[in-house]
Amino acid sequence: MEFWFRSRAVIDELVEKFLDESKEWETMEMSKYIMRDGKRFRGTLMFLFNGALGGEEKDAYPGALATEILHSASLALDDIVDYDEIRRGMKAAWAVYTNRKVIFVSNYLIPTALSIISGYGDKALRISVDLWKDTAVGALKDMYGKDEDYVRTIELKTASLFKLPTMLSSFSSGRSEFLDTLMEAGKDLGIIYQLIDDYVDCVTQDKDKLVGSARQLFSLTSGKFESFVRMKYREYKEHYETLLRSLPVKHDYLDQLVALPDFLAFGLMGEAGIKNKIF
Amino acid sequence: MEFWFRSRAVIDELVEKFLDESKEWETMEMSKYIMRDGKRFRGTLMFLFNGALGGEEKDAYPGALATEILHSASLALDDIVDYDEIRRGMKAAWAVYTNRKVIFVSNYLIPTALSIISGYGDKALRISVDLWKDTAVGALKDMYGKDEDYVRTIELKTASLFKLPTMLSSFSSGRSEFLDTLMEAGKDLGIIYQLIDDYVDCVTQDKDKLVGSARQLFSLTSGKFESFVRMKYREYKEHYETLLRSLPVKHDYLDQLVALPDFLAFGLMGEAGIKNKIF
User: Are A183 and A167 in contact (CB under 8 A)?
Assistant: First the structure.
């Protein structure tokens, strides 16, 4: 928790500095709006894994920043396509600036984030481009995918931007031999995150109003989503812990990394004000 | 002209094959719609410059395909933001498939094109990411830029996707020592293309209805756009010819490369049915 508060503050500073240095005045104001007030969970993963593998904190900065840029851009686009008028407690960017501007600013922010990532080398860039592509395929599967593909859909849609920081931490810490394991760890965390997010929707919303992967979860389990979520949560959490044991994690990071699944799940359930029946 | 007909047919085949091989059924139908019936000018540049520098035709395939994917995605997004209902003689993609789908399919197509480009190596990928970013900045400057920045705006907005294929041809032909010259040549051609496109708008449209760079051109020249366009056209064409002389162009390609500025300009003016007063 404390680690998160601190990394969130650092990320907020990085974002502010990045935006203030922007030479393109046309993009700055709106980029600021799009990037305001995030929870910075994904960026925090970059700090945690980078530190756990022995990287210096400053080596995590570009990765955390780029991750949050991509995440914010994807939210801004999601809001357009969902016609959601509220984001992070304020009007959605499109409702303030129009679709037009949001689309172009996103088209500016996305390659800008990729350029920042290219500082970690060409392999990091290449994988990041593929992960970004995966988020788009996931967004489509979220709408049109089959219920049976639920887990694959949330992996593509959500876990891609969790894989991104854990993957980048292998480069930032100079431990690229753990690339695959780190990608897997990010995948587990992202699936857990979306699983609980959909669980919250299934619990709190009228079942006729469920959309996307939450609707798929409800329909796949014929409404008996709780036991399914509990089972999958355990399965991915155990897998994640197995991965952690195979990584040379520095001692003072281990507890925090182990606690991540519960931290993410607890955060989502707490936000929605529902009781934990999962873990 | 004949070269263009042939390369257009080859590109149409490449596009069809690419789409039929798509594993993501959610994207295929709409991607087909977005990519239908292009003039394939930009992809043709890839064939021309690759061939002129001694590359094999097949080495140009990925670059031509990726260029046309990016171009089509950018048009589909432009139509959303402009609320244009007609594109290439049919309903615009958003009017058929909704904004939602077009945004996500574009977010899928763009990194897919970048992945294809990465086959030319990491430097090619890195430059392509930057060029894509430039198109987004250009789109914003098209709306909010100053009239005095007109040439810079059209360079960013339009010439970026002309630079892309000429730049890639340096990698496809194995002549990366000419990278900078080829980028410059693409820039000249792209500026010429947009200059004439805006000229056509200024000639054919009511001046109150001009938007974007065409409006900037009109306003910058206080309505005396013709002499300005003629001057700039000559300037960029001469610069382009100077660049061509510094490249080791194969003899049988020289005439076609030299003719490109007039070919592009003539094509645009012919399409609009206006008389040539420029060259």
Answer: yes
Of B101, B117, B106, B43, nearest to B78 by C-alpha is B106
Q: What is the pLDDT of residues B225-238, one digit of tens each?
A: 999 999 999 999 99
Domain assignment of residue B239, yes or no: yes
Residue type, A133: K
Can you give the residue range of the structural domain that contains B233? 2-272
Rounded distance, CA B259 to CA B257, Å?
5
Residue of B nearest to A94 (CA): B81
Q: How many domains does chain A have?
A: 1
pLDDT digits (tens, 9 = 90+) for B117-149: 999 998 999 999 999 999 988 988 898 889 999
Task: Give A-chain residues touching B125 at CB under 8 angstroms.
Answer: 122, 125-126, 129
Show residues of chain A in contact with B130, CB under 8 Å: 111, 115
Residue A279 in any domain: the answer is no
Q: Helix (H, G, I), strand (E, B), or coil: what is residue B87? A: strand
Chain A: nearest CA to B266, how far in angstroms? 30
Cβ-based contacts of A81 with chain B (< 8 Å): 98-100, 103-104
Hey, what are B68's tokens?
Answer: 């046309």
What number is the ipTM of this complex? 0.78
Among B24, B26, B114, whose Cβ lies nearest the Cβ of A129? B114
Asked if the C-beta of B146 comes within 8 angstroms of chain A's C-beta atoms, the answer is no
Q: pTM to 2 decimals?
A: 0.86
Whether residue A277 lies inside any domain: the answer is no
What CATH number does the domain containing B134 carry?
1.10.600.10
